[in-house]
Amino acid sequence: MEDATGSRQQQGEAAEQPVRSRWTPKPEQILILETIFNSGMVNPPKDETVRIRKLLEKFGSVADANVFYWFQNRRSRSRRRQRQVQASLTAADHPSGIHYDHTFSPNSLSYTMPNPGSSSSFGHNSGGFSGYPGLMQEFEQNPVFCEAEVQSQMMTVFVNGVATEVGRGPVDVKAMFGGDLVVYHSSGLAVEMNEYGILMQGLQHGESYFLVIILCWLMFLVVDSVGCA
Amino acid sequence: MEDATGSRQQQGEAAEQPVRSRWTPKPEQILILETIFNSGMVNPPKDETVRIRKLLEKFGSVADANVFYWFQNRRSRSRRRQRQVQASLTAADHPSGIHYDHTFSPNSLSYTMPNPGSSSSFGHNSGGFSGYPGLMQEFEQNPVFCEAEVQSQMMTVFVNGVATEVGRGPVDVKAMFGGDLVVYHSSGLAVEMNEYGILMQGLQHGESYFLVIILCWLMFLVVDSVGCA
DNA sequence: GAGATATGAATGAACG
DNA sequence: CGTTCATTCATATCTC
User: Fold this and answer.
1) Residue A90 CB: number of other CB atoms within 10 A?
2) pTM greater than the 0.85 cutoff
3) Where is mean pLDDT largest: A38-52, B75-89, B168-182?
4) CB crowding A143-157: b at 16 or more within 10 Å, else e
């Protein structure tokens, strides 16, 4: 790509502003740049960039690289904004649901999806802790996230930090997960469960709960109490 | 500057506020965002961002840009904090620098990063996640259980509702349990964990935490999503 | 309600 | 060019 970076570190103007790590265009400079950009010169060639820089220097220290970056970012963000507008308009064509006016905002809002169509296995790879391919799908498939409508018999609780829609009344934890689970309220108290693995008292709307695999904390206790001394 | 504040329409929320100039995420939204972030998705691609936005909308008006900015800031500030900690740790060598009060950390020897592949063998139970076959093995084989080093200063926290003694300082969750775990404070917020699965900030005496197997709540979602047509 | 802090938003500066 | 990082600006929130 074009260099344009030659003098990357450029910090003149020590006379007025304390050390600034990056160029801060003066209002006059921005005015000039915007004017040029809006006049149609959105990607000035190198020599033109130099000319512009010299012009800008009348209002403050600036390097060619700064001008180059400015136009580059200006183009990028302008285009991005355009795309967002387009997207929101397209979405408007689909009267398939409620949609708010999310007025797009400038900046970096588009990325390329590294997404492999197939998120493959859920089993983690050796790496351990990085990323959950199916996470968002799960969120999405969740009824609470799929339907805007709120059923009178349903309510929202947070399970392990995740907003979840559950029905009111007893919850059959064992049937849901096969057993060996304990449900804790965020206060640290376990939610009482009967011998059949059913939470008789149900949960409370808006509250936060934690689903814990018994073996998990059992092991933790073993480790801790024994201390392996 | 143009709007760019996506959420300029304050739809009928509970309490109407006098026009905010910027988005103020609801506690539920923060909880969701933190959960996603701590689950490893620290830089969701665009389409994921859109999904997340739709999810968040259940709890208040929000735009894609807000979500994007949130993750960008979260990443940035998390990284910065990490660097700060690192810097303050290495600053111990410099007799001439400012030194912070490392209330917790000198015990940095209590965790040794296991070789990727040696102690952790996750990702092999590729099948459905009915039960966690490899879990117990992980627990049993984990060396941490056999060499519980004595930490000079211990404190009591509640882990999954059980009073537990733990050493002060960073906690190597991954080495302890083989990974795929997230630690939540009882407030519902996940405890920040670095890329190596270590809780840098340690835990706080007397507080209540929840150890959650990631697949666990993933499964919860799967189960719960049944019926989402 | 001024100052300190947390954090949403914006943007210069790169990177790939 | 699209994306990402680092820094800065602006404002919401909190405290005394």
Assistant:
1) 9
2) no
3) A38-52
4) bbbbeeeeeeebbbb
